[in-house]
Amino acid sequence: MISSRRRLTVAATTGVLAVSVAGVALADGRCGAVNCRSDISVSGFAEPQPVKIGETSRLKFTVRNNGPDGTESTELKTTIPDGLKISRTLTYGGPQCGQTGQFVECKLGAFAAFQTMTVQVDVVGTRAQTFQIPANVYGYGSDDPNGGNGQVTASLGVLTKSGSAGSGSGSSNAGGKLTVADPQRPLKTGGVKVRVLTYATGTMRIRGRVYIGRGHVDLSKVVQGVRSGETKDVFLGTTPSVLKKIRAGLRGGKRLRTKISGSVGSRKMSTEIHLRR
User: Fold this and answer.
1) Taking the model in full, what pTM does it have?
2) What Cα–Cα distance (Å) separates residue 243 from each residue in 4, 151, 220, 246, 248?
3) Domains of the chain, CATH where assigned
4) What is the pLDDT of residues 183-211, one digit of tens each?
């Protein structure tokens, strides 16, 4: 005989069997008196991108329960930055989201182990800028053994109607955005660290050229496959002979113009910095 404190209530919702133990619904019912463990993660990206002002991009956030147990309920929350206008929210195979201003909250219900669900937020660019859109997922009724994968930031580039980038650090165009944080890096580590925000999917190529007097030296190239909306940190290195020439060119307090350029497929991107001691 089952005591009143351990009653089992079985209910089927949306084709998923949900079991309630001591008042806590478990999507798979395997935990009993022991706390359930559910590794809830979220991934996200924007497509297409970049877009021009007035055009629409789709933010897609995929929530996954990596197991081993289920959750009582699961929520996704995101705040869309000013400069992006929400035109629609859509959940594939689940309850629809609520919206208050720029805040979107999606109560997705119980998640069985290894269940996934995708939330889509359509946005229209109203300002030329590179936007960072954070999203967080929360699982209730179980312990999450890996809280580090419960958040994601999707990037979206919005260009002017003429196709140029908005204001901000670095330079961007159809291929992506290039940013160099530390122009003194060649004297410290023998190369230049570049952060790349990609606006396309394909093969990415990044290269650097340092102008010294009437000539120039080239930094090492980086070639790798990327997806649209990824952020990549790449290192453009030097050889001992190239670094020696750079050091010589910087003598007397001089600065050296350096062009960082690249592409993703046929889409180009570039920026310029000035190396200094």
Assistant:
1) 0.57
2) 76, 40, 12, 5, 9
3) 34-159 (2.60.40.1510), 171-275 (2.60.40.1940)
4) 656 666 678 888 888 888 889 999 999 99
